[in-house]
Amino acid sequence: MIRVTSTQRAAVFIDKGGTGKTTSAAHLGVALNQLGSSVLLIDLAGKQGDLADALGVFEDVQRDISTEDDFPNIATTMGNRWSDVAEMVGGKEAVERLVYETDSGVDLIPAHPDLDGLDADLGNIDDVQERYNRLRLFLDDHVEPLERWDVIIIDMPGLANNITYNGLWAAQNVVTPVSMGSFELKQARSLKNDLQKIRSSYDQEVQLTMVIANLYDRRTNLHSDILARFEDEFGSVMAPEYIVDSQQIRTVTEEGQSLFDVPDEELLSTAEDARDAFRRNAAELLTRLRQGSRSTPTQSQSRNRSQTRSPETQ
Ligand SMILES: Nc1ncnc2c1ncn2[C@@H]1O[C@H](COP(=O)(O)OP(=O)(O)OP(=O)(O)O)[C@@H](O)[C@H]1O
Ligand SMILES: [Mg+2]
């Protein structure tokens, strides 16, 4: 049986902190929204709620948590009783209750403090396929039928835990922002190897779909050298554009916005380059996701196809 998915999914991941995962998830999401896709962002990146912060809904989310108006939440979707929750709250409405609309046009399922405990709970599930399949089943069975979103982007923690694996299983496509250093090159290489291992050991099609050079400084030769090495090694998996190091990204993020919210006349030239680069990368990401998902193999078929579908080898 071939399952044709209507929603494209990507997880923004590398097991390192501070490389721009949350920034990329937010900017790619808003860019795709502006390009005409309806976008859902999901924050698996831990209780600090960075994505809610970056999208200007941090206070709404915190208020709901502190007044215990936070059920169900993202952790509930991976608990063992989502079907019961859906029945209790009413199927469609249960999903609606997870989602916050943001001023930038994207929708968000924010992180929740219960994600911490969930990681341990998932660890108690012996069957790995079940342990890592929770988020995917939730998206397949409860989100897809709503036909509300064209693209789902998952912001991931900077480490590999049980929740991370749920994100990888659910998205199958990995977007990796990297900063420009030889250590980061090694880390991206080891991520590529890890994904290869996941494909062969767990019968999953998880693949590296896009590596984005982030925090690029045009003034240093080191960065252009490292970028050339990334391009040599990752070839067509590299995003078409690097993202420059732009102080304005930090400033707007702290204000709960993205570069797309800044009026043109207030955008500094490096930030404008970064914004345009995010837009171009977002369009390319959508193309790659669509190419990769014309048909999604069922688990029994995926093993046979795993040799032919990894973009790293194209
Ligand atoms: N291109 C850029 N130019 C300038 N600052 C950037 C850029 N990309 C990210 N940053 C800043 O770097 C910091 C880390 O970025 P971000 O939070 O996106 O990383 P992360 O990978 O999500 O980190 P964590 O692993 O902690 O979740 C933030 O302050 C962000 O504003
Ligand atoms: Mg983050």
From TrEMBL:
Domain of life: Archaea
Claim: Membrane is one of the keywords in the record: no
Location of region: Disordered: 287-314
Pfam families documented for this protein: AAA_31
Biased composition (Low complexity): 290-314
Boundaries of every AAA domain copy: 11-207
Gene3D superfamilies membership: P-loop containing nucleotide triphosphate hydrolases (3.40.50.300)
Keywords: Plasmid
Name of the protein this chain belongs to: ParA domain protein
Stored InterPro entries: AAA_dom (IPR025669), DNA_Partitioning_ATPase (IPR050678), P-loop_NTPase (IPR027417)
